[in-house]
């Protein structure tokens, strides 16, 4: 697994995962075999590649022996542009159609994440400066434990309701789920640096390892132990 700003990519066996959602755009590419994915309407699609927009419930009913799983930050240029290729965000059929288009530009033996078509994976500037300030504060606040909207709003000079609205409008996700996603991302970063699950959970501000496990199951459809099993991490700056 490789982690760099705005991108988390993994190559190897990709397991099945129960219904879940995450605040990232997910791309799955099979090198051998086919995925079977399902949406909340119960539609099941077999395909070699899919593009799943951020915050959309989905299940991977069948994984592959060799493939690529890429998570793109939803606010990054890559994430935004790749999401635009999915015409019906909650449709498994549309995810597969976008995946087919993605595969058409991929040569034999090539890994998709090696040639991200939109190059820049940095988070785009937000229109409201107070929201930008809040996003800068949150990575440090999550380490200390609970993060309250009231306290963050006070720190950036907005009312709770205004800041809450800005998160939904410009991030596309409510405040609490966004904080939960930050914690999950921080914990994965800590694991990539070689720390154990308990220490990684603590560094990300989770109450304990059990809390981390519950959030990981909800976010990725699998436990932390399964997520990182036999994965080799590298961290690119």
Task: Characterize this entry briefly.
The protein has helices at 77-83, 92-104, 129-141, 149-156, 160-171, 175-192, 197-203, 209-220, 224-228, and strands at residues 2-4, 7-14, 17-20, 24-32, 35-38, 44-47, 49-52, 58-62, 64-73, 234-235. It is of the alpha+beta class.
By secondary-structure content and strand pairing, the structural class works out as alpha+beta
CATH class of the largest domain: Mainly Beta
Low-confidence stretches: 118-123
Question: Major sheet, described briefly?
Answer: 6 strands, mixed
Describe the structure.
There is one protein chain. This protein has 237 residues and is of the alpha+beta class. The protein has 2 domains: 2-115, Jelly Rolls, CATH 2.60.120; 129-221, Orthogonal Bundle (Arc Repressor Mutant, subunit A), CATH 1.10.10. It is built from 9 helices and 10 strands. Helix 3 crosses helix 4, helix 4 packs across helix 5 and helix 6 (175-192) crosses helix 8 (209-220). The longest helix is centred in the C-terminal third of the chain and has 18 residues, at 175-192. It is globular. The model is unreliable at 118-123 (pLDDT under 50).
Features:
237 residues; alpha+beta; Jelly Rolls; Arc Repressor Mutant, subunit A; 2 domains; six-stranded mixed beta sheet; four-stranded antiparallel beta sheet; 9 helices; 22% strand; globular
Secondary structure: elements and pairs:
Blueprint: E1 2-4, E2 7-14, E3 17-20, E4 24-32, E5 35-38, E6 44-47, E7 49-52, E8 58-62, E9 64-73, H1 77-83, H2 92-104, H3 129-141, H4 149-156, H5 160-171, H6 175-192, H7 197-203, H8 209-220, H9 224-228, E10 234-235
Parallel strand pairs: 1-10
Antiparallel strand pairs: 1-2, 2-9, 3-8, 4-7, 4-9, 5-6, 5-8
Helix pairs in contact: 3-4, 4-5, 6-7, 6-8
């Amino acid at each position: 697994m490789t982690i760099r700003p705005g991108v988390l990519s993994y190559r190897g066996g990709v397991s099945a995962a129960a219904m879940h959602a995450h605040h990232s755009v997910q791309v799955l590419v099979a090198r051998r075999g086919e995925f079977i994915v399902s949406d909340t309407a119960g539609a099941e699609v077999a395909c070699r590649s899919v593009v799943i927009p951020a915050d959309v419930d989905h299940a991977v009913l069948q994984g592959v022996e060799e493939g690529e799983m890429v998570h793109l930050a939803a606010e990054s240029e890559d994430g935004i542009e790749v999401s635009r290729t999915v015409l019906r965000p909650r449709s498994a059929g549309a995810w597969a159609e976008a995946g087919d288009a993605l595969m058409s530009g991929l040569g034999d033996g090539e890994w998709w994440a090696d040639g991200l078509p939109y190059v820049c994976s940095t988070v785009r500037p937000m229109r409201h400066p107070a929201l930008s300030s809040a996003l800068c504060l949150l990575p440090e606040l999550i380490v200390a434990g609970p993060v309250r909207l009231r306290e963050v709003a006070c720190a950036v000079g907005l009312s709770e309701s205004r800041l809450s609205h800005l998160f939904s409008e410009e991030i596309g996700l409510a405040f609490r789920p966004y904080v939960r996603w930050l914690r999950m991302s921080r914990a994965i970063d800590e694991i990539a640096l070689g720390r154990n699950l308990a220490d990684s959970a603590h560094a990300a501000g989770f109450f304990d390892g059990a809390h981390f496990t519950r959030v990981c199951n909800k976010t990725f459809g699998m436990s932390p132990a399964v997520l990182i099993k036999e994965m080799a991490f590298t961290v690119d700056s």
